[in-house]
């Protein structure tokens, strides 16, 4: 059974600092890995999806890496802004288009 | 285009009553998922529909929970005889089905259910 862990559960950084968010998983036989953002009282917004065959994926200030052998993914957010304050979740589907197993999330606060 | 929509956004009910939650997926998406997000449990999978295949109900917590998807589009999640532990945010997501490409799940805003 896949288990997904995100540590730390909460993170506070000053504006401008780079953010590093960690996601670890127990079963390396993954189809892809997805990073989401959730604002308080809102649904989830997809940020990045890394296919199993990829090592990293980039979108603007966001960069996500994937190391299946060690069961880890890292989401980097460059030059953080107060608007980046949210909870970030990683999730892994069992197979193509399948149900997601989520980590517990990392709650990020970027202080102006 | 329009995203995933859910209704109602908030629902307060009394213990023992039945509730229905609705999800309208993105047009053309053949896969539809229900998840539940509660304080103590994080985000949990409930049920998954893909095209005309039998749904994957492996995440439903009890037989009080059921869901249907009519015409391959709109889905309704029904909770019978609600209990206080059913209080949570119920999230719906949809995705397009591909054989080898990306299949990001797009989430709706959720329905916050409170059982008094």
In short, what is this structure?
Chain A is mainly β and 112 residues long.
Percentage of residues in helical conformation of chain A: under 10%
Query: How large a portion of the residues of chain A is in β-strands, by DSSP E?
Result: over 45%
Shape of chain B: globular
Strand content of chain B: over 45%
**What is the number of strand segments of chain B?**
10
> What distance separates the N and C termini of chain B?
37 Å
**Helix-strand topology string of chain B:** EEEEEEEEEE
Rg of chain A, alpha carbons: 13 Å
Structural description of this entry:
The complex is a heterodimer of chains A (112) and B (116). Chain A has 112 residues and is mainly β. Chain A contains no helices and eleven strands. Chain A has strands at residues 4-5, 10-14, 19-25, 32-38, 44-51, 56-59, 62-67, 72-77, 86-93, 100-102, 106-111. In chain A, strands 2, 4, 5, 9, 10 and 11 form a six-stranded mixed sheet that branches. A five-stranded antiparallel sheet of chain A has the order 1-3-8-7-6, with no helix packed on it. Chain B is mainly β. Chain B is 0% helix and 47% strand. Chain B is built from no helices and ten strands. In chain B, the strands form two sheets. In chain B, strands 2, 4, 5, 8, 9 and 10 form a six-stranded mixed sheet that branches. Chain B has a four-stranded antiparallel sheet with strand order 1-3-7-6, with no helix packed on it. In chain B, strand 6 and strand 7 (75-79) form a beta hairpin. Classes of the chains: A mainly beta (112), B mainly beta (116). Chain A binds chain B through residues 32, 34, 36, 41-46, 49, 51, 89, 91, 93, 96-105, and chain B through 4, 31, 33, 35, 42-45, 48, 50, 56, 58-59, 91, 93, 95, 97-100, 102-110, 112.
């Amino acid at each position: 059974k896949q288990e997904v862990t995100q540590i730390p559960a909460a993170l506070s950084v000053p504006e401008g600092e780079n953010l590093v968010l960690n996601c670890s998983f127990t079963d390396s036989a993954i189809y892809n890995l997805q990073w989401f953002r959730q604002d308080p009282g809102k649904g989830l917004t997809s940020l990045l999806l890394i296919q199993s065959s990829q090592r990293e994926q980039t979108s603007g200030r966001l960069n996500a890496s994937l190391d299946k052998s060690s069961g880890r993914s890292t989401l980097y957010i460059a030059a953080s802004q107060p608007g980046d304050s949210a909870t970030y979740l990683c999730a892994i589907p069992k197979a193509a288009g399948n149900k997601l197993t989520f980590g517990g999330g990392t709650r990020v606060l970027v202080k102006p | 285009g329009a995203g995933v929509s859910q209704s109602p956004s908030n629902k307060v009910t009394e213990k023992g009553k039945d509730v229905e939650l609705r999800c309208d997926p993105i047009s053309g998406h053949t896969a539809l998922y229900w998840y539940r997000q509660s304080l103590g449990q994080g985000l949990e999978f409930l049920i998954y529909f893909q095209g005309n295949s039998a749904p994957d109900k492996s995440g439903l917590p009890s037989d009080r929970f059921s869901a249907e998807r009519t015409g391959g589009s709109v889905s309704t999640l029904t909770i019978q005889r609600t209990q206080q532990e059913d209080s949570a945010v119920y999230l719906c997501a949809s995705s397009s089905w591909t054989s080898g490409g990306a299949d990001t799940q797009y989430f709706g805003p959720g329905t916050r259910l409170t059982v008094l």
